[in-house]
Fold:
Amino acid sequence: MGLLQVSGVEGWVLRGRNLRTPPDPGGSNGKETFLGDAGSPGWSWLPGQAKGCKTIEGARPILFYSITGTLRFLDKMYTTRIDGLAADVPTPLQSLRKTLWKLAVPLLTAVLLFAAWKNYAATSMEVTLRLDDQPTAIQTHAKTVQAFLDQQGLRLAPEDVVWPAPDSPLTPGAEVRVDLARPVLIKADGRTLTIRTHATTPEEMLKEAGVRAGPQDVLLINGKPVGGSTSALVSEQRVLSSRGAGRPVEAEPVHTLEIHRAVPVTVNDDGVQSVLYSTAPTVGEALVRAGLQIYLGDSLLPDAGTPLLPGMQVYLQRAVPIEIVVDSRVISTRTQGATVAEALAEAGIALVGMDYSEPALDTPISENLRIRVVRQHQEFLIEQEPIAYDIVWKPDPLMEIDQRRVQISGEQGLSKRRISILVRDGVEVERRMLDEWVALQPQEQVIAYGTQIVIREVQTSAGTIQYWRKIRMLATSYTAATSGKDRDHPAYGITRVGWVARKGIVAVDPTVINLRTQVYVPGYGIGDVGDTGGAIKGRRIDLCYDEDNLRLWYTWVDVYLLAPAPPADDIRYVLPDWPVE
Structure:
């Protein structure tokens, strides 16, 4: 066929064939139209798809049928020249026959296959395969157990157990049980062998392999020590060896079982000898596994890191536990020393200078002995103290009383002493003077004081009075009731000189102002010195009042000693300087 495009309508062009036209509506039975031989010119067209053909107009209408069998009427026919090979165009009946023939072959094939499948399915049965206690339902046409196992691809070893027997016939609903033997690799005494076994414990596996394990030997499963219940080993075997139907038996061992042989070792523990069996790699680890704790200070021969060998002799000399208190620390340790001195030396503690221990260094060591190290040293100190100079008073008749002048200045001396201080554990416990000397002698001071008496006058509210001395004093006041005696006391209200206490009597220090001296106190008036007091010392004066007219005093005042002056022997020319205003 070639493609032809006619007035925008696509169609198929038939080459080199006679074609009968279909009946027309007027009753024509159609006619053959010659399209031309291959390579010859011819004219025709049919609806379809065509491209690249030249259009020729002017032909009369002709009715053709398409290759789909659909009739089409055209008012106008376009023709084009056809070149190329001839193509057969069958009639509709021919096409139908050909189509049916093509469908018959696959249909017949399908019917035959379905019949065969139905016949095959009718002979299938369900069988349960229990492989290592894991059931699987399987459809099979096998006649015997062996044929069934072959269908599942199970290649069994001689040690595997099959029930029922492999040559037993297979019936619908039957259960085939397969218990696979596990391959186990055994390493013992330098040999390696592989066995297949149904054993569930290491002991049973070794027994099947003809290998004996001693009570002190260590068994390892896959590198881990065997201990406690063997159920974990059984569970692990189930998981490792379980597989679904159709898989081959594993060839690799699921477990590696090793035996570490225990070797005999003789241990002398502080004179007590015993034999132990151990698989430990070193002496120290063997002792620890045997429950023999090695403490700091213990002596071990050979040392803990020595490889363990059969028949080895091990000597363990125990250290004694002690406690050392030193430098504010408490050290719990062990020693093999026989005395306190040896124990301290082992602990690296040295006694220096005046240090000592409690108990003494030659004390024998006993268990849990407490040793106290006392750090002691001696310090020396030079103390110095000033020496007060003496004051020499010299009277000066040309200078008025209570006037002073330093004639020679005094200088302090200096004394020194050497002190020994004993210190224990940082605390001073003793101080002792070794010697003392005067490093610098003091120089006395000479003071001149006036002895000249000059009578002076002072204006008061009572008139002009004469006095021979004026003293600055701290004035206080009192009554008989405040003098410190109870009213029923025989001396209540009686002064030092025996007078009745009243206003106009004053109390003073008799070493400063003589008793029975008359004084004038501004604000108080004239008073007679007739009393003393325990607190009235130095430059103090206590003014007496009647009990009903007490006026409280506490102030510094000028006290005038009224003329005439007493004899020179009764005058204290140098007065105390206290209290100070």
